[in-house]
């Protein structure tokens, strides 16, 4: 079903459309929710509350350009809101932490990458701020556009781009070679 | 150098990894990418490898997804406490008329009620309307789907009355009846489809036909899937007679009479084939099986020998 038709049918009360939306996005939502907290009950509760809320207000909902971005932004707000209410001082999520930890054991099984390489990739991502990591997750792993990322994070398009270009700076600070030297070294590293 | 070696070398560089994750014009890797087909292939393949990397996450499985789905369904179904709306009962209240027990199967909101031979069951539907099903019939509906598209699936014969939700429909193998009114009977067995409207307005659809027939009180539609014949006639009774245990037949094939007798009394006839194509006009009721036989078999010149629930038919 095409996205806008799916959404319109859901708004009109089509149960199979509602179920299709749930089935279509539940995996992505669980993965995304996991980025903020390891508390699976909290993520489950938030996903439940999200779907109940959109169902109850379905007639008054706007038509989002991206259902995924809409659901992600709603879930994000829900998780931040609900974890603020919980008595977990060590997991206080004011402006959220964003975990992106590689499951090294599974990764060595599923990909051709070795442990050392995976650790380097992990270190690369650790250099980033939580927001930068989140932007990478949303763009690289979820194929969201800059506009959609802006919607999810509640910031503007330019801020998204700034986060990304600042990421590059962090990479450079993280590597040992200065950029100019790196460019001249490149051709000799690879013989083509 | 093999591809893997090239890849591993590239992966030693954090800036390269970052560029893979977030390509930008500012990075020198951009021009490297455009230099050759080989570079492009390496980069694209490495991106796919990165995409395949699993992150530590909440364990996701069908059990979890199903649990969340069920919680959502339950929450949606709960009536709001602060509205004046009548509380909708989601339970199936099956009142027995006859013997045995109902079979209520609840799976993902799916409810199924089966009336075996010799049973007629009354069911309260989620919108408060009522359905009564005849022996040898099955009625099913989904409580989750009800809120969105109210309706039931019927195999056999059912009588529907009460105030139906907007857009309530009865789906059968032969056709669909959409309710705009309040009391009607649907018969759908084998190739025969018959819908009687007693009160209100209903819209009748037949499989394979795009035209919908509207019936008002006192109108009846019969259709035969095999002959494709559709007949409209009028009825002058207020309620289907089977609900009172009475069965009327007007020039029907005797096999229909025998089938109804089997269903109502929970018996099996032997040598049915000999008498199937005879034409019968008459009536029987379910008060007494011997009297029922007197009213159906006797006028056709058929004698019988009964052993427990097996009845052997012979020509007189």
Write structural notes for this entry:
The complex is a heterodimer of chains A (192) and B (316). Chain A is mainly α. Chain A has ten helices and no strands. In chain A, helix 2 packs antiparallel against helix 3, helix 3 packs across helix 4 and helix 4 runs parallel beside helix 8. The radius of gyration of chain A is 20 Å and the shape is globular. The C terminus of chain A is likely disordered. Chain B contains eight helices and 19 strands. About 9% of the residues of chain B have low confidence. At the A-B interface, helix 2, helix 3, helix 5, helix 6 and helix 7 of A face helix 1, helix 2, helix 4 and helix 5 of B.
Which descriptors apply to this entry?
heterodimer; A: 192 residues; mainly alpha; 0% strand; B: 316 residues; alpha+beta; 19 strands; 25% helix
Would you spell out the secondary-structure blueprint of this structure?
The complex is a heterodimer of chains A (about 190) and B (about 325).
Chain A: H1 3-11, H2 15-34, H3 40-56, H4 67-85, H5 104-110, H6 115-126, H7 130-141, H8 146-153, H9 157-174, H10 179-189
Helix pairs in contact in A: 1-2, 2-3, 2-4, 3-4, 4-8, 7-9, 8-9
Chain B: H1 3-10, H2 14-21, H3 29-35, H4 37-51, H5 62-77, E1 95-97, E2 110-115, E3 120-124, E4 130-133, E5 137-142, H6 143-146, E6 151-161, E7 169-171, E8 175-179, E9 183-189, E10 192-199, E11 201-206, E12 212-216, E13 219-224, E14 230-234, E15 246-253, H7 254-265, E16 268-270, E17 279-285, H8 289-296, E18 302-307, E19 310-315
Parallel strand pairs in B: 6-7, 16-19
Antiparallel strand pairs in B: 1-3, 2-5, 3-4, 4-6, 5-6, 6-9, 7-8, 8-11, 9-10, 10-13, 11-12, 13-14, 15-17, 18-19
Q: What is the overall pLDDT average of chain A?
A: 83
Q: Approximately how much beta-strand content do the residues of chain A carry?
A: under 5%
Portion in helices of chain B: 10-25%
Structural class of chain A: mainly alpha
Intertermini distance of chain B: 98 Å
Number of helices of chain B: 8
- The outline of chain A comes out as globular
């Amino acid at each position: 079903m095409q996205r806008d038709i799916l959404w319109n049918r859901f708004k009109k009360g089509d149960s199979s459309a509602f179920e299709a939306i749930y089935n279509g996005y539940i995996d992505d939502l669980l993965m995304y929710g996991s980025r903020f907290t390891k508390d699976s009950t909290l993520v489950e509760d938030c996903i439940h509350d999200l779907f109940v809320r959109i169902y109850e207000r379905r007639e008054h909902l706007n038509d989002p350009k991206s259902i995924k971005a809409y659901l992600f932004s709603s879930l994000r707000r829900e998780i931040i809101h609900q974890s603020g209410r919980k008595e977990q001082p060590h997991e206080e999520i004011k402006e959220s932490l964003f975990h992106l930890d590689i499951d090294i054991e599974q990764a060595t099984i599923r990909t051709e990458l070795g442990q050392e390489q995976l650790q380097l990739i992990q270190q690369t991502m650790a250099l980033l701020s939580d927001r930068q990591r989140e932007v990478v997750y949303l763009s690289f792993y979820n194929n969201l556009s800059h506009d959609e990322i802006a919607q999810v994070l509640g910031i503007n398009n330019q801020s998204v781009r700034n986060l990304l270009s600042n990421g590059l700076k962090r990479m450079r600070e993280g590597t040992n070679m200065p950029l100019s030297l790196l460019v001249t070294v490149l051709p000799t590293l690879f013989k083509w | 150098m093999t591809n893997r070696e090239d890849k591993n070398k590239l992966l030693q560089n954090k800036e390269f990894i970052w560029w893979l994750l977030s390509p930008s014009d500012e990075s020198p890797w951009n021009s490297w990418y455009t230099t050759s087909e080989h570079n492009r292939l390496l980069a694209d393949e490495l991106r796919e490898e990165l995409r395949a990397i699993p992150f530590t996450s909440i364990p996701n499985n069908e059990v979890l997804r199903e649990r969340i789905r069920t919680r959502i369904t339950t929450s949606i179904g709960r009536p709001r406490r602060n509205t004046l709306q009548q509380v909708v009962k989601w339970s199936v209240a099956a009142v027995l008329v006859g013997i045995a027990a109902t079979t209520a199967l609840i799976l993902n909101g799916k409810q199924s009620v089966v009336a075996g031979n010799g049973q007629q069951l009354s069911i309260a539907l989620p919108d408060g309307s009522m359905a009564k099903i005849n022996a040898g019939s099955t009625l099913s509906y989904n409580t989750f789907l009800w809120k969105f598209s109210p309706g039931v699936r019927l195999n056999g014969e059912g009588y529907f009355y009460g105030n139906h939700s907007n857009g309530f429909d009865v789906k059968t193998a032969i056709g669909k009846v959409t309710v705009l009114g309040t009391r009607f009977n649907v018969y759908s067995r084998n190739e025969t489809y018959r819908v009687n409207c007693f009160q209100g307005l209903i819209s009748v659809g037949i499989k394979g036909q795009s035209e919908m027939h509207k019936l008002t009180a006192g109108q009846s539609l019969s259709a035969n899937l095999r002959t494709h014949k559709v007949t409209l006639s009028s009825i002058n009774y207020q309620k289907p007679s089977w609900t009172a245990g009475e069965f009327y037949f007007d020039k029907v094939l005797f096999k229909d009479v025998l089938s109804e007798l089997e269903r109502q009394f929970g018996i099996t006839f032997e040598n049915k084939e000999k008498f199937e194509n005879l034409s019968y006009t008459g009536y029987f009721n379910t008060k007494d099986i011997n009297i029922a036989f007197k009213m159906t078999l006797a006028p056709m010149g058929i004698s019988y020998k009964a052993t427990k629930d097996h009845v052997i038919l012979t020509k007189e």
